[in-house]
Amino acid sequence: MTTSAFLHPFSKPAKAAEDFITLVRGEGSTLWDRDGNAYLDGLASLWYCNAGHGNRHIIDAIKHQLDSLATYNTFDPWTNEAADTLATRIAERAPMADSRVFFTCSGSEAVDTALKLARLTQRLRGDEQRHLLVSRTSGYHGTAYGGTSVQGIAANKEGWGELVPGVLNVAQNDIEGAARLFAEHGNEIAAVIAEPVQGAGGVHPPAPGYLEGLRRLCDQHGALLIFDEVICGWGRLGQWFGAQHYGVTPDLITFAKGVTSGYAPLGGVIVSRPVCDALESNPDFLLRHGYTYSGHPTSCAAGVATLEVYEQDGLFERANVIGGLLGDGLRALVSDGILAGVRGDGAIWAAELFPDRDPYMVRDALLAQGVIARPLVSAIAFCPPLVMTDDEVGRLVDGLATALR
Ligand SMILES: Cc1ncc(COP(=O)(O)O)c(C=O)c1O
Predict the structure, then answer these.
(1) Secondary structure of 160-181 in the HEC alphabet?
(2) pLDDT digits (tens, 9 = 90+) for 235-252
């Protein structure tokens, strides 16, 4: 057994090189490995390939950008047309009026940026004592130190030494618990961070009224509300953002993944007007935050093209159709007595297994049938590309039924 030079993310470092599957091609919702085996992608890679694989419009846009300006930084005084265009298009589609967009390269960087901007905004408003960050159990916010610190998945926080101080955790959908926290620490809380639908923590939609309750508490106490929409954005819930789907408007939105469908790395933060006002209030204030690849022209060109695909191909309407079929199919397996439960919204769903089932074994049994899904806690998650056909959705459900039987 030998390991490869590539140390894989979220993998066992001792895993043998030959046990990884080498993918060579993707088209629509299907991938092929180097031995010619086909896989139906029930997870849109890792919750991100909403436009599906092999989309010519996005690929051509990337090639076109590479042919003109492949790369240049956007620190003062530089900018590029792709970044400016993408920021404008995102701001036009955001739920917050007159917002601006800060670009990062990943969701983890987007989360760090949002947490830093939240504390900075409070400071610029003269509220230095507001430094606490509130997060939820089962929340996943990436793996940088900021996102690791506000994680609600305990195992992901272990082994990294001292994390960012000033983080308080509340139970997932417990608005009374959040209210108690605000009653005790209200004037010290800078921000609350929440995924509209929790993804990696097990696919947990918000309880009715929960997000509205968070919004109310933040307003009453002067805290900022951050929606981490790294998974929920870009049509996953049938609209541009989960904020619009649930009718709750945050102060900051983190995004990544679906903004380019993963064709090039890109993330960012949508910054609402009141937060921008604080940042812009002193003309001499310098924002000492940013990444070498913030506003990378090739990634941003991929983003512009991806947004065009979503609109031109009507993919957000497909989210509801795909989600409806998937939800119905999984509920039928609950009726058949082979699944313990099902939960989800839009086109993101989890099949809850009975306690005697090992989710990793179910994942492997699905893979043996050429179906990709993700084992999560005690469930199997599905998050298909929004180009998936009705028949292919049926194959996801049939595959799970066979795997369980
Ligand atoms: C809600 C959420 N936030 C942040 C991240 C981190 O994004 P990235 O892996 O691009 O750093 C993820 C990744 O899955 C996520 O689901």
Answers:
(1) CCCCCCCEEEECCCCHHHHHHH
(2) 999 999 999 999 999 999
In order of their start, the domains of the chain are 17-55+313-404 (3.90.1150.10), 58-312 (3.40.640.10)
> Atom 12, ligand 1: which residue's CA is nearest?
142
pLDDT tens digits, residue range 81-104? 999 999 999 999 999 999 999 999
Task: Determine if ligand 1 sits within 6 Å of the CB of residue 227.
Answer: no
CB 401 within 8 A of CB 338: yes
Round to whole Å and give the CA distance between 169 and 190.
14
Of the candidates 154, 107, 151, 109, the residue with the CA atom closest to the CA atom of residue 133? 151
| Beta-carbon-side half-sphere exposure of residue 233 (alpha carbons within 13 Å) | 25
For a pocket test of ligand 1, which of 8, 149, 257, 266 has the largest count of ligand atoms closer than 8 A to its C-beta?
257
DSSP 376: E
Q: What is the pLDDT at residue 299?
A: 98
Task: Quote the CA–CA distance of 247 and 279 in Å, as a whole number.
Answer: 26
